[in-house]
Amino acid sequence: MPPLRRIHEPPASSGGRLVDPPVLPGPGTGSIEALVDNNRLLRSALDLRIGDMRLWELVAATRREVLTVAAAYTGHYREAARPVDVADWIARPIIMGGHQPELFHPGVWLKNSVLDAYARQVGGTALNLVVDTDRCANVTVPVPVGTPAEAHAEQVPFDAFTGEVAWEERGVVDPECFASFGSRACALLAPLVPAPVLARWWPLALERVGESHRLGLGLAQARHIVEERFGLQTLELPVSEMVRLPTVMVFMGWLLAHARPLHEAYNAALESHRRQRRVRGRGRPMPNLAVRHDASGEWIEVPWWLWSRDDPRRRRVFANTDTKGALALSDMETLRVELPITPDTSPSKWVDALSRMEEHSLRLRPRAIVTTLVSRLLVADAFVHGIGGAAYDPITDDIVRRLVGSDPPRHAVVSGTLRLPLEGVFPGLEAADPAAELAAARHTLRDIEFHPERHLEPHDAQPDEVREQIAAKRRWIDTHPTPALARRRCREIRAVNERLAGRLGALRESLAGRSEPLATAARAREVLRARHYPWCFFPENMLKRFLLLETG
């Protein structure tokens, strides 16, 4: 029986943090030490053979490769300590998380601070995956402009848009646009936040993008350097680098060799998820893996992406297992490869086949569920999710149970809310609630339509005509709506309501006149108080306090 899952919500107040388990456990809470210990027991219970190795053997080899490559990658652009005793380093807990290399909000960035805090607590290593295999779908950033009476978010581009491709393949298309983003965004932001981190950070982003020749990696490296200055001791590793490691290729080869059981487990887990949560849409939270047919036979979709250097559009991957001793992979468009990947072939052939795809500029990259599955089974002693990842990972857990018959390691959940510091610019912004005022005005307008008598002068001051109309309405309300009377009863009540409401024209006009400005103010307040603005829009000291780096 799978464990009960908590439903996590982002904190409502600015500065609020969700850290589960807490860094410093209190009464009635869990702890990162307990999570790590429990996860190690769960992983040791996974009786799984990957090729000619037991899972624990592959885990040890993968952890060595991941830590070594992550230290080397990080060391290219900032200090990265590598202990002399490598065996002890590998044996210590690894706390792992990951996110796309975009300009994310502070609530996402909080994960990296918690990775560091967790690792210090258990004497281990913090490792953040840069998910550069995800798509770069947007090259604009919303910047709030205006006042509480009327504000909107202006989309400011940091590069030209040329179609959706993986961050891994994305360089800078418009150098002038990218170079000027910092000054353009700061100029718009200046009336609200005069000294954002962006002003001093963007030159570093320019430098790192120029060195890495990749938009996403440059942004991630520049952000990671800021973390070093803040005192965080974390390693980073792009997913595109992790999936090239021989040990990871062994596990990927094993999954592909069992393409049909994986396909069936994936779809069964999705169906179970929808039933348990009463989700009606077949595409939520993601579509089932599909099945297609052509002259070659049946093709089953597997949870990877495929593209080539010449055509970097990410495409779905379909597998055909009809050829003895081989696995065919295709995007069902232009790409098709045959690989010696089956349960009966050796892991060395799996690695060789996947390596040759890389050499021929073909990219086979795991989707999110497979990425976290690899991370949680092979590397991390505790994986730290945001709220979105935590909501989807029960599906990953179910897939693991269906494939190997045992529970996978558990994950931690971290998120937070930080809003731009606008109370000094707009006093009363936090206390004001135009949305509530608007709802009250609309409720009163509706009440006037159906219950106008509630809004008339007191009974003693009402003219006899009004009293008679109210009394007639009450008589009709008390009349049983028989089939013969139902229609007339409705007409009479409505007619009285209209006559009475006619006496409230000034009130209705006043409420209607207030509604439009209140609706505008409610939208403006949502813009100004949104939690999704990039971390680099905030002052440095505010960020440090939020990231648990300052207490004063």
Largest sheet: 6 strands, mixed
The amount of beta strand, in percent, is: 15-25%
Q: What is the alpha-carbon Rg in Å? A: 30 Å
Structural class: alpha+beta
Q: Summarize the amount of helix as a percent range.
A: 40-55%
Mean pLDDT: 94
Notable features of this structure?
about 550 residues; about 15% strand; 6-stranded antiparallel β-sheet; about 45% helix
Question: How would you summarize what this structure contains?
Answer:
Helices cover 47% and strands 17% of the residues. It is an alpha+beta fold. The protein starts with 15 loop residues before the first strand and ends in a 6-residue tail after the last helix.
Give a structural overview.
The chain has 552 residues and is an alpha+beta fold. The strands form five sheets. The protein has a six-stranded mixed β-sheet with strand order 1-18-17-4-5-10. Strands 11, 12, 13, 14, 15 and 16 form a six-stranded antiparallel β-sheet that branches. A two-stranded antiparallel sheet has the order 2-3. The chain contains 18 helices and 18 strands. The chain has a domain of 95 residues. The radius of gyration is 30 Å and the shape is globular. It starts with 15 loop residues before the first strand and ends in a 6-residue tail after the last helix.
